[in-house]
Amino acid sequence: MCVRFKLPNVTEMNDWIAIGALALVGVLIPLSMMAVSALLRPSVPETSKRATYESGEVPTGGTRVRFNIQYYMVALLFLVFDIETVLLFPWAVVYLDAIESDAVSLLDILGPMVLFVAILLAGLAWAWRNGAVQWAQTPRQVDTERNRP
Amino acid sequence: MNAATTTPLQSDVLLPERLGDLTGLNEFGLAGELLSTLIGAVIVGSLILAMTAVAGPWAKRKITASFTDRISINQIGPAGIGIIIADAVRMLSKENIIPENADRPAYDLAPIVIVGSALLGFAVIPMGSGIQLADPEVGLAFAFAVAGIASIGLVMAGYSSGNKYSLLGGLRAVAQNVAYEIPLVVTGMSVVLFAGSLQMSTIVEAQAEPLVDLGVVAIPQWYALVNPFAFVLFLIANFAEVGRNPFDMPEAPAELVAGYQTEYSSVYFVLVYLGEFLHIFLGGAIISTIFLGGPAGPGPAALGIVWFTLKIWGVFFLTQWLRSAVPRVRIDQLIEIGWKGLLVLSFANLGLTAAIVGVIA
To answer: Any stretches that span the bilayer, and where are they (chain B) (predicted)?
Structure first.
């Protein structure tokens, strides 16, 4: 498996120009819909209309409520695994070529990645055991449920 | 299937260049090329938008109605298809009510981000009949990356609305997306192991080779047939990614009103709603491309777009079927299915696939 570094040629550049063009279209479509809507729709401002929707009740308290700490835990876990998938991409691309070229043995190309994934999965097992991916119950809650008659 | 496997599925010429040749714009140098690229982008954008317009106001209602033994819309046009225009006019001409606690720039930008990110993903999808805007070497990674941008839009929508339901809906959407992103990408990686490339056209071509030749018909080597386990994992992860049943926690009408879209009205609501359908179709397009042979099918290669459309509508139909047939999971179940179930299974699938590919090769 030889490693080549090459400058992007014209056709490759065209790819990204085309993607840029679709990005432009992807922004222009919502903007034009907003423009059409601005021409069509009425505007009858009234303070009670703009009240925060809470199922018809008078809104109470702030809207920045406290939320479950687990959202933070799974986001942390995600970061670890997400960076790992970035590493997996180039590995998966060269995998077949590397084996067919007979330059490296199967163990040489599969082994390190299996080891790497295994380390991460050990991390997941630890997080799992400590309840990082368990959403609802703390150990105390589980205990009180068990003691319930 | 012979015809499809003998004729090339797609020419090497991408849509912008072909348009340039057809219209003669290529003779005008760089400006002409840019213009033909832009026309190509408009064509792809309109095609996807048209499909979404049929799916959102019409097909979704009709499908749900059939599952629940109702007649549904039937007043305007044949089978009520005119509801698409009626709904578009109705929704766009509603008053746009901005809630008093909204964070203005973010509140207005979120719908654009949600729609734009989904549309952008279609740039690399080979839709058959020569309709492919771009074919970069990192195609699949690009599609995953762009689909992931939607999470930002959802958090923006949820946080900036200044509403408790919206905030929780936005947070749930992100927790769900991050939990299922990893199984999705890792399962997609097992396809890359077979194809040896991230380029969408290469992945499609690799699936054109016959898996079993029965003489009369050759069953193509679609990766859904080669590795059905990965296909099922990918489907499940994809439904969670696009927030469909049984994983529609972020909206959960019974708990959160409408989640992150609670405070949106008028054109903003249309855009957020449209964005969801665009994401279902983008998910369907990725599934069709990497598991179902992309535009491959019997008949001449020119029919590619028809087969491709059928395949992504098949995925869409499946989402609507599940919507009618499967109960919603709870948020704690959702996280546990993702992190304890699918993640582990997807790594098992990747390891097994790598070992099998390694031994066979």
So the answer is: 34-59, 71-89, 109-128, 140-162, 182-201, 222-240, 267-294, 301-322, 342-360
- Split at pLDDT 50, 70, 90, the class of A11 is low
Evaluate whether residue A124 is within a structural domain.
yes
Residues of A in contact with B332 (CB under 8 A): 134-136
Chain centroid offset of residue B183 CA: 16
- Domain count of chain A? 1
Per the CB < 8 Å rule, is B271 touching A30?
yes
What domain range includes position A77?
68-135
B203 burial level (CB within 10 Å; 0-12, 13-18, 19+): buried
Shortest Cα distance, chain B CAs vs residue A49, angstroms: 7
pTM of the complete model: 0.87
Distance (Å) of CA B307 to CA B9, B18, B114, B195 = 11, 21, 27, 21
Confidence check: pLDDT of B7 > 70: no
Amino acid at A42: P
B145 touches chain A (CB under 8 A): no
Give every CB contact of residue B208 below 8 A, 6+ residues apart in sequence. B4, B5, B9, B220, B221, B293, B296
CB within 8 Å of A51: residues ≥ 6 apart: A58, A59, B99, B100
CA distance B109 to B160: 10
Instruction: Residue B194: list chain A partners with CB under 8 A.
Output: 96
Task: For B102-151, write each residue's pLDDT tens digit.
Answer: 888 888 899 999 999 989 989 888 887 778 888 888 889 899 989 888 88
Residue A5 domain-assigned (yes or no): no
Q: What is the pLDDT of residues B185-232, one digit of tens each?
A: 999 988 888 888 888 888 888 888 777 777 677 777 888 888 889 999
